Amino acid sequence: ALPISGGSVAGVTDNPNPARVLNLSLGGGGTCPSTMQAAIDGARSRGSVLVIAAGNSNTAAGTSTPANCRGVIVVAATGPAGGKAPYSNYGGIVDVAAPGGNMSRGTTWGVLSTHNDGGASPGNDTYGYLQGTSMATPHVAGVAALMLSRNPTLTPDEIGRAHV
User: Fold this and answer.
1) Separation between Cα atoms, residue 126 and residue 147, nearest integer Å
2) Which helix (DSSP H) or strand (DSSP E) does residue 84 occupy?
3) What angle do CA 132, 72, 80 make, to 5 degrees?
4) What's the pLDDT at 53?
5) CA 74, 77, 120, 29 torsion: positive or negative?
6) Which distant-in-sequence residues (6+ apart) come within 8 Å of 64 by Cβ?
7) What is the pLDDT of residue 1?
8) Are β-strands 111-116 and 125-130 bridged in parallel, bridged antiparallel, or unpaired?
9) How far, in Å, CA of 149 to CA of 142, rounded?
10) Cα–Cα distance between 55 and 143 in angstroms, integer?
């Protein structure tokens, strides 16, 4: 269960404001673990849309998890000119691509993002440039949230079919 999506977890207070859109910028290799798929299925059953980074290995996204789990929107990254970013995973499981930057062209060719300048402990809030499918997924998650703001009855499947 994912408490963030309204699932119940023993010993944890229920979330009174469950998320309708989950942005997951994480990954690893191999097949989708059954526990990850169960968590995704549970979140979807509660109406949550899961937007997943395709990965940054310039390889088939089907080899990356949780991108290869069922029921998620998989996001690849584009560079500044609009084509596939050189690092972005790709393939048939990718649903949509969004700006992810390409800092091989210079730091400012990344996506401006929030940062914290702390090393071993929290520091000051700041901004900086990053690149990756983790920079692309928030664009798509934002569009999914806007779709839900206009029509809260949309299901995860309906948003996924729209290829936000």
Assistant:
1) 30
2) none
3) 25
4) 98
5) positive
6) 27, 28, 29, 54, 55, 57, 89
7) 47
8) antiparallel
9) 10
10) 20
Task: Kindly state the tokens that stand for 58.
Answer: 């310039």
Neighbours of 41 (CB within 10 A): 13
pLDDT at 2: 52
Distance CA 57, CA 88 (A): 6
| Residue owning tokens 């401006």 | 112
In the chain the beta strands, taken as DSSP E runs, fall at 21-24, 28-29, 49-53, 64-65, 73-78, 96-99, 111-116, 125-130
CA–CA gap between residue 7 and residue 43 (Å, rounded)? 7
Q: Tens of pLDDT along 81-113?
A: 999 999 999 999 999 999 999 999 899 999 999
- Whether residue 147 is predicted with pLDDT greater than 70 in this model: the reply is yes
pLDDT tens digits along 3-53:
578 888 888 888 888 899 999 998 889 999 999 999 999 999 999 999 999
For the chain, state the CA radius of gyration.
16
Q: How many Cβ atoms sit within 10 Å of the Cβ of residue 98?
A: 21
